[in-house]
């Protein structure tokens, strides 16, 4: 049987995004699913800061092309022999694993335990905006910081979300509001502040200024939880000042310098990391939780509780379009998500 090929976008060298070889159109062998893998016909992907970070210039080359892309919506084409959760024809969405080839291709393999049923009310582009940011926000709020999903448990409690208008922030605001928390978001531009308010943020403060005086003006001496999506070390002192005694801080942004954890000692405050690739990367015993949370998110979306955060849609899925999408995300000023459809 002749080898089947597929179109993809990949890289051999890590170059500035304006270089024509930073992302290239390539042909790859169409993969075959084994074990619990699904073979998915990709319909749309979205571009995240992790794509930009992985692709950023560095002194390294790849012998075989590296394919990026960790947000996919598509249709199951074929299932591995051990699959029990999906069948061919099912519409799915997922973020995948950073230790495997990404989804910037016509077909993609993903472990079914980290894929969810696509929201029926969304098209593929709208759905592709959700998985990575939603898993990150969900795990940070409910797994890492242990916030209850029951509204009555959160009466009078507050959360500060630093970077509320970005991809993860856009979902975290909605999830926190749905859980009954008072949501304070940070934004520094009128358009980002307006976006965060439209998603449910009760208050907006400026992350360029000290947090405590701004919180006090809202009648909040402290916040019970802080979710940091922007420059952990820059905001570290401000977060330590603003967190409530026995409160919890979670960040997704790695640091260039060590953090002074002693700042949290007198408050017995907790600091925890969130990295949504941890479960698939280490094949943790509970990695199926990503399947469950994506299914629950689909339910909330279809009920109108959570809305997609797509803000810009591009097509087709080729190197030129992806270079444009990477350049947009690389500015660090995007609101919501940039999505690329396979075809127009």
Automatic annotation (TrEMBL):
InterPro entries: ADH-like_N, ADH_Zn_typ-1, ER, GroES-like_sf, NAD(P)-bd_dom_sf, Quin_OxRdtase/zeta-crystal_CS, Zinc-ADH_QOR/CCCR. SUPFAM superfamilies: GroES-like, NAD(P)-binding Rossmann-fold domains. The keyword Zinc applies. Residues 18-340 form the Enoyl reductase (ER) domain. It is found in: Cytoplasm. Keywords: Cytoplasm, Metal-binding, NADP, Oxidoreductase, RNA-binding, Zinc. Homotetramer. PANTHER family: QUINONE OXIDOREDUCTASE. Belongs to the zinc-containing alcohol dehydrogenase family. Quinone oxidoreductase subfamily. This is Zinc-type alcohol dehydrogenase-like protein. It comes from Brevibacillus brevis. The lineage of its organism: Bacteria, Bacillati, Bacillota, Bacilli, Bacillales.
């Amino acid at each position: 049987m002749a080898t089947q090929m597929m179109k993809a976008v990949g890289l051999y060298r890590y170059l500035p995004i304006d270089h024509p070889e930073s992302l290239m159109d390539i042909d790859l062998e169409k993969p075959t699913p084994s074990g619990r893998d699904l073979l998915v016909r990709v319909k749309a992907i979205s571009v995240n800061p992790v794509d930009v970070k992985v692709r950023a210039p560095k002194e390294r080359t790849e012998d075989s092309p590296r394919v990026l892309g960790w947000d996919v919506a598509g249709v199951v084409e074929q299932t591995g022999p051990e699959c029990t959760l999906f069948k061919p024809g099912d519409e799915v969405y997922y973020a995948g694993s950073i230790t495997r080839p990404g989804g910037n291709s016509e077909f993609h393999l993903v472990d079914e335990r980290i894929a969810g049923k696509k929201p029926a009310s969304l098209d593929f582009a709208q759905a592709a905006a959700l998985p990575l940011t939603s898993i990150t926000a969900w795990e940070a709020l409910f797994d890492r910081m242990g916030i209850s999903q029951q509204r009555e448990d959160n009466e009078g409690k507050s959360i500060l979300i630093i970077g509320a208008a970005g991809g993860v922030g856009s979902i975290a605001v909605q999830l926190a509001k749905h859980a009954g928390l008072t949501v304070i978001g940070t934004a520094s531009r009128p358009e980002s502040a307006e976006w965060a308010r439209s998603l449910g943020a009760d208050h907006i403060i400026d992350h360029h200024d000290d947090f405590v005086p701004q919180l006090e003006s809202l009648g909040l001496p402290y916040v019970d939880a802080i979710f940091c999506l922007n420059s952990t070390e820059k905001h570290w002192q401000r977060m330590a000042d603003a967190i409530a005694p026995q409160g919890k801080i979670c960040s997704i942004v790695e640091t260039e310098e060590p953090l002074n954890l002693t700042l949290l000692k007198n408050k017995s405050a907790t600091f925890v990391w969130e990295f949504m690739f941890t479960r698939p990367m280490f094949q943790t015993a509970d990695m199926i939780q990503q399947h469950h949370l994506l299914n629950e998110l689909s339910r909330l979306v279809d009920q109108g509780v959570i809305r997609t955060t797509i803000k810009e849609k591009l097509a087709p899925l080729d190197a030129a379009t992806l270079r444009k999408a990477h350049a947009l995300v690389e500015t660090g000023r995007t609101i919501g998500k940039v999505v690329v459809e396979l075809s127009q």
